[in-house]
Structures are given as C-alpha cells and as structure tokens.
Fold each of these.
Amino acid sequence: MANREDGIKKKILIIGAGNVGTSLYRALSDKLPGKIHLFGKQDYSHQDKRFILKEDYTNFLNPEIVNPVESIIICVQDDRIKESTRSILLFRLTDKNIFHTSGAKEAAELDHLKSRGAHVASIHPMQSFAHKYAAPEKWRDIILAFQGNEICFPAAKEIADNLKSKIISIDEEQKIGLHVAGVMAANYVVAILSVAENILVQAGLDGISKNDILQPLLQGVVDNYKDHPAEDILSGPVKRGDINVLRRHIQYLRIHKSKDADLYLTLAKVLLNNPKFQIPGRAKLEEILDKYS
C-alpha cells in the first residue's frame, strides 16, 4: 500500500463493500496519499485482510469518520443509492463532493443532498468488476465518465489520475447512451459466450476446457480492437460473403433443435445491415438469409 504520509493527504469515504467499492478502495489505497475509509454492512471478518487494513474498514459511521472527508463515493446497486445516503445524513456534508458510480442513474439521484450543502456528481467506470478487491490494474486506462456539478470535477480528476484512468465529462443524455453501449459490449458479449459454450457441449466437446477453446479467439478480437474500429476487424463467413457456410451453420443449429439458430441469424443480419462493414454480395446474402427467418 502507498505511504499515506507522502504528498497532500486526502480523506475519502467509500460506501458499499461490493465488487466496485472494494476494488476502488484497493486501487486508491495503493495510490492516493491520505485516508481511505470503506463502509459496508458486514463486519471486518468478512473482508479480505490481504487488501484492507482493519482501521480502514467500518460497518458503523460516526462523526470522526465522516466529518473530515472531502469526498464520498457511493458504490451500491442503482436502486439502493438514495437509501445508502441515510447513513451519512446525520453528519456534516457542507462542501463535500458526493459521487455515485452508477452508469444508468444520473447525478440527480443525489440531488436531495444539495440542501445539506453537498456537491453531487457521478463517476462511472467503464469496466467490469466480477470480483471483490480486483487488482488496481483493472482501473488503468479505462474511462471514468463524469456527469454532474462541475465543482466536483477537480476531485474526480484527481481520483482518475491516481487510478491511472481517463476521465471524460458528459451530459445526462450521453450518460445513458454510454451505459447502453457498455452493457452491449460487456454483458451481452458474456451472453454470446454462454451460447457458444452451450454449442460446444451440444457438439460433445466437453473433454477440453471451453475457456481453452474460446478465450484465445476472443483475446484475438480484443487485441485487434485496441487499435482498430469494429468495421476493420470483422472476420468469418459473413465478412467473406460465404453463404454456403452460413447455410450449414443455420441447418446444424436447427437440426439439433437449438434455440440459438434465430440468434445466429439475427447477428448475421446486424452485420449485413451495417454499411460500415465491407461485405461482398451483401444483397444476395440478405435475400437468402431472409428465407431462413
């Protein structure tokens, strides 16, 4: 952990000891000089003691913890954001920066704290946190989307700098668009992976790890996407205009009574309907695929 005696000391309270809250604590405690408190519902025995000091964790807030902090970051489920603020309403909030990390909810979710003198905003990490106390590297080079009172931006920028993240300032409409894009790119890719795993099982390929089969393929796509837009990295039968392969795939899925044949067709049409993809014989492909719909 960083030597908190170095530099300008900052005091931050993180509310919520789930995947995001614990991972944010670990990353900031490594980088940010000052005191980082983590508040959760369970006692310290439930925390990973490799990554958090006992003195930094609490399941009971008091004035000694809350009053001195400069920023409060709320990392809870979207529908619990307002409820979670009850834990701080008894304390001095004047001129504090209070953030939540939701991607779907605007900063206005915290507007009720303005009457207490707080400045409110949201800072949403464009990252997937599947586990508690994820490595600090998970924050490196990701986008932190800031939306809310510009008074909070310097504090958010300092947090982003310490995390080695990139911060962008967006409005409410952009925020929901960004979140939809993030869900499509992260959550629904997992849905497609689960479909691919089921197809492997259906084909009897259960003697080798599904991860060993699919992860290198997925990693190749991710590596290509680092430097190129989606339209420049497409490969496979749609990209080649190979209707015979597409026919065989759809027939295979339908012969095996797979419910995923329709999904396969839908995704093929998504590619065909996007003019950014250079696909030979596009009109003919569309005509033939329509017959399978």
Amino acid sequence: MLTTNTTCHRYFVELAFNGTSFHGWQIQPGATTVQETLNLAIGTLIGQPVNLVGCGRTDAGVHASHFVAHFDTDTPISDCNLLTYRLNRFLINSIRIDRIVKVELDLHARFQAFSRTYQYFISLQRSPFLQEYSWILTIPLDIDAMNTACQSLIGKHDFTSFSKLHTDVKTNNCEVFEAGWTQISGYLVFNIRADRFLRNMVRAIVGTLVEVGKGKKNQDQVQKILLAMDRSKAGMSVPAKGLFLTKVEYPSEKFISNPNPPFPQGLGNY
C-alpha cells in the first residue's frame, strides 16, 4: 500500500466510534483511548508509526458517528480504499473507518474545521436498549421554553459558564450557528452546531436547558448565566453517554481526491 517517495503526505481518516469502552479520544496514561487504538492499527498495517491528530477531544463515554483525524506519512498510500477495508477487519467492533482520503498538507483536522455538530439524546421512557446511548429522563419538559432559551446561545460569545474549569485553551469564545430541540419517537434530541466547542460545553448547556424545561430557569436567566462567565451559575453536566459528535466540516477544495465518501455511511458497510 505504500510507494517510495520522500515527500510528506497527509491523510484524513473519517470514522465512527462507540465511546462506552474508551476514555475519550486523546491518549492518556493507563487508559484505553480511540487515538491510541488507531495509532497502533494504522501503524501496523502501513508498516510505519503514525500519530493521529483528532478534530477535537471527546470525554470518556462520548460517542461519535462522524469523527475526523489526520496522519502524515513519508510515503504515499497507493490504495486508501484497501487500507480502509483492512482496518475495519483489524479493528474492534466499537470503531468503524468510513474512509481515508489524501488532503493538502496544510489541512489540519483540528484547526481547519469550520464547524462541528453535536447531538444529545434524552429518552423519555425507560428502556434496557436505550440506556447506553441516551440519558433517560421521564419527567415532563417544556420543549418550547427550551427552544426559546436556545436563542440566547446563538452567535459569538464567551462560553466560560459552560466550560470545564482549568482547561488549556487560549480563548473560551465560540460562535454557535444553530441550537435547538426536536422530539422524535420517544426521544428529545438537542442539536448544536458551532465553529468550536469547549470541554464539557454541550453537556453543561443541556443540563441548563433541562432546568428551563422543568420550569426552574427561563431565557433571561440563561442569558445572565452566559454573561456571568461563571461555571457555578450553569446547570449540571449531563451524562456523557447521550452525547454524539455527528458532523465535522472542512473546506472541500483541500481534499486531493473526491471529498464525497466512496461508501454509503452506516453500519455494516464492510
């Protein structure tokens, strides 16, 4: 799969993973992570060590139906589809590789993403089949009030009130493009799209909006929480198991090959 060439080559890997058995994306001492698992698998199959750079961190237990990472090689990969196939045979079932594509060297999986979308799932009924992938909450919630409060989040703001404390980012400013709730067949689904997210941000926002749904807070209070830049003012951080990273977007002109995936997205492709 590798051909001789001294020029550096960059590849994007698009994947999905069930985060239940992982301590998040980023390598940590003494913990099983998605990054470490993929570094080992790809390095083994192409015959040289790699260090994948992810589009962002995910906390332990958080899932992704669309996650993107990049790695560099000294020699080009001759058949990305074959490597994709072999990785899916090699990896454990909780990770699926959707495609590997060559990109321009200046396209960075973390810093060049112009938007990311997360979804959070709340199950409105108890079920043994949903508890691993949603937060079960059977009390009535006012969805209209929750959606009204979402309007305070739209735009560019300092989201310190919804961030984990003592993180190593340079700024807590994020631009939220859309945020809202829908009810689908026994689920409440929160959808939020932004240019970037802080650690714990979506889970803290959901916890705050659920308090609005319970009648304990209103839109004006959510606005004040945002302006306070104080994590203690916001709601609880809801369980990680209901959170999914669902889409990461990049400038398509940076993809050397077709930016559209060669295989249909979904389970069972391989």
Amino acid sequence: MKNILLLSLLLATAAAHAQAVLRVNNTVGSAAPYTTIAAAVTAAGVNDIIMVEGSNSGYGDITINKKVTIIGPGYFVDENTNLQATPLSAYVNTITLNSGASGSSISGMVYTDFTAMVINSVSNLSILNSYFAGGANTNVVRIFGTGNNLLILGNYTYNSNIVLLSSTYSGVLVANNYLRRIETGASSVLVSNNVLNTTTGAEIDVRNSTVQNNIFLTPITNAFSNSTGSIIKNNVFVGAQVGVDATNLINQPLASLFVGLPGNTTDTQWRLKTGSPAIGAGVGNADCGIYGGTTPYRPSGIVVGQPTITDYVFPATVPKNGVLNVKVSGKVN
C-alpha cells in the first residue's frame, strides 16, 4: 500500500473507536503538538493513543496513572531497513505505571535505564515489542503489588531479567521475548517461545507454572532448580538438563539452531535455520523460540497492521506565500 498519509490513517482509525491520537516529537522544528510524553499523558483522555516519534534526544522518565496506549517507532530500525523512513527510535529512561494505568498498552519503545519499567498493582497491562537496553544482568521489568492479566510479549532485552516481585499476580504470559532470565513468585505463569541466555544461576524461577517452547542457550544443567511444581515441556536446550521429560530436547548444538548473525541483524539472527531441531519441537508441533507460536516475534518491534512512514519528499525551497507540497509514502506492515 503506497502513498498513505500515516497520521491521517491513524486519526481515521482512532475516530472510529472514539479515541484521540496525540503526537509527540521533541526534535526541534518537528511542530508536534507535544514535545514530552509526560505532557501528552497529562492531556490524554482514557483510551487515547499517544504516538511517540523517533528522536536523537531522549524523552526522560514517565509516570502513568491512567489507561492509555503508547506506541513508539520501534528499535534496530537502522539495521532492519525499509521499515521506517527515519532510522530513529524513541528513548525513555524509566516508565512507572500505577494502579490507575490498568488496561494500558506500551509498545515500540527503547528503554535505557537499568530499571526500565516499574509496575505497581496494574492489571490488564500489555508490555509489547520494545527494546530494554539498560544493561546485561539487570532487572529491567520489576512488578510489585497485586494484579491480573499481564502480557509481556515480543520484547528484546540486552541480556536482562524480568522480575515479578509479587506472589499475587495471576494470568501472566511471558512469550516471544529475547531475555536473560525470568524470576517470579507468582503461580500459573505461562512462559512460552522465549530465547533465554544466561551465564549463571537458574534461567527460570517460577512456581506451579508452565514453561514450554523455549530455547535455552547456555549449558546450565539445572535451569529449574527453583521452579517447584512447574510443568517443563517441549523446550530446546543447548546443554544437558536434569529433571525434564522426553518432550524436551537436550544437548543440541547452538550452531544447528539459528541462522546466525552474519548476513542478519541483531534480532533476525534468532530465526530458525533450515533443519533446525527446534522446528516443530514445540507443543502441537509449533516451532520453539521467539519466531514460533501464535504470536511470533516481529523484527524491530513493528507489528502486523502497524502503519509506518517509509519515505517523505519535500521541496528544498518554497516561494514566499507559496504552498509547501509534501509527499508522504507509507505502508501497513
């Protein structure tokens, strides 16, 4: 689909659902109505959409106390080309969500702090398709209090951890993420189709939960030492693993699993190569890893149906009192 005016499409979509779209860009000369995400959140009504555009300047810390949808332009857009016209991401330090933010959705952002997201008793929350770049072996998502229906889906981390510091959350899904490890005191967590890569300690620390269709990259023989009562099935392990049944594949050579980095990008390197033992090894013959399952990982965090700008053209000069003709091309992914 060519020559789509992205903002018009978003406005039309929002109008159909009685939502407003608030545009944020802190680049000098962008003429965006809002230059900070915080100001847009303050102005937004419940259910409004906040579109955050890429910039060379970060957007700082944000606190959210209402139900909003925040959508950024994605990450690794300088590697995964032809997705955005401008290879810029939207950087934030930390987002704190309090109980009034229940029902919110945040996607397409880049988090730069060691503690990137703090969640305090928020339900029906979606953390989607973002890059947690704060640092290796850091707890980038920290979850407190009580709540239900928490979705952590399609994210990429710089070998970081997701930590659920509460035993009273229910309905938690952690799926299709690249991360270091998951730690939670909650029960009935579904951990599915992730790629986990740690060098020390248990990779999964869950209770009475289900761990399936994941790929474990490091040869830790007791990755589930703290996962009392959990079902561990249809996972792929690079090394040996104790305490797992025959549905799991162990001692699989790393070189046999993925297409690898040469010729690919930071996140596309985790696609399964032809003949990979992870193909069809999951529950119901699904593929294991982040590109398998019902919600496959999307490169750069740009999801199916998300409109993006692919090109824009404007004249170098305009006559005095003349008309500035701008051509914007886009596509729906």
Amino acid sequence: MIMQYNAAPDDAPGRGAGSGPSPQPLYRQVKSHLVHRVLTGEWRPGEILPSEIKLAEEYGLSQGTVRKAIEEMASEGLVSRKAGRGTFVTSHGTGRRPFRFHRLRADDGQKIAGDNVQFLHFRETSATARAAAGLGLPGKAPVIETLRLRHYDGRPVLLELICLPSRRFPGIAAALEAQRPASICLLLERRHNVLVTRIEERVRARMPEPQERQLLNLAPQTPVLEVERVSFSLSGEPVEWRTITCATDSIYYASNSSD
C-alpha cells in the first residue's frame, strides 16, 4: 500500500499575485509566490514571515487574501502560526518535529524515535534499483548509504538503510559521519536548506535477511515489517530513500500518527 502525508504545494512557484491573468484564485497565486520565496532562501526554516499586513501591502491585495494563502500553507504543514509571535517557516528543529514522519511505535504507544541511534556504516555506493527508482535517479547513480540501528528499552528494534543522492548533497557523507544525527531531515534542513514536507511509504511483511536477523536479535522464523519511504522536499523533489525494518512482536505501524 502507498501512503502520503502533508502533501507539498500543488502549484508551481510563479510570479507575484498582481503580475497578470491567471486561472488560479488570488490567494493561491500569493501562496505559490510565498512558497517560491521560501525555496529561494528568502526565509529559511524556522524564520518568521512578514506580517499579513506587510504582505498585503507588498502584493497590493487585501489582508484576507493573504491570510487565506497562509492558512492553506499552515494546513499543509509548510508554516506554523504562533499566537502573539507570528508565522514561521516550518522547521524540523522545534519540539518533536525532527521525527514528525516516524510511524512506528512500541506496544506502549511510544514513538520509536529519538537520539538512541547506533550508526553501523557510511559509504558512497551505487544506488540499487529500488533506491534509484525512489529517488528518480538513473540506474547505479552514486548515493551516500547509511545503515543504522534504533534502540528502544535497551534493545535494537529498527534497522534503517538510508540513501541520499551524492550529487544533490555534496559533502553529506563527511557531515553524516562527523555529526551522526538522529534526524537526517534536520541535517538536510540546516546544511542544505532543504525542508522535507511530504513522504510516501510502502509497507510489507516478509521474512528477514540473515543480517537483519542478526542485528535485530530475532528468533528463527520471526517475520519483519518493512517500511520503504521516499521523502520529498518543499519543491516536490525526492531527496531521501530508506527502508525501515522491524520485528512484528512488539512494534506496530500507526498510519494516523501526526506528532
């Protein structure tokens, strides 16, 4: 099955709202232009946008039109509105947001996410057919591959194989090895100004490979759940491919997880 969350904008970044005829409603034109300004780095993740009044003056439109554009961006998770403070570009560096897309939970309801991560290897390699397809790359394109284990309650429970396109993220291998981040999304945001806003996942049950059985300390004939995930940036570009493998005896997939 394929699941999508927090869809990215469906309008391509365009010109300012008053630049000419368009079939789109005015608020959609404003939204498209605001997204374009985020993509070009005018406002980075975590930074505050100008007030609705200032934006309305800039675009020569009513404050209500600008407000509707920002409300739609907020509903898609592109910005967050904080009472008394303003509107901020979404960032994975606030609160629990580094792990907003993690859907796997322990039987006690706790999300399997956090800083308890063991990195097993970093290497530049050729993309597998699955990774290349997910990232929209030609076959055997160079990728940076990371293998790591997540622990919970003192035991390894998730095995993550992560691939990033080498040409898209120069120097990322050294940064991964030096920082060993719990959140790849946060590293991409801070180092490359890339904000992950959407994921697609395929979930399947299967029998484990020998390495998976060993690393997860699985008993013979224990099935695993595999989540294949592609992460997309604000511009709709696939920027990360990964598989997450776990035992099914104490871990479950929460499709409605949103925190």
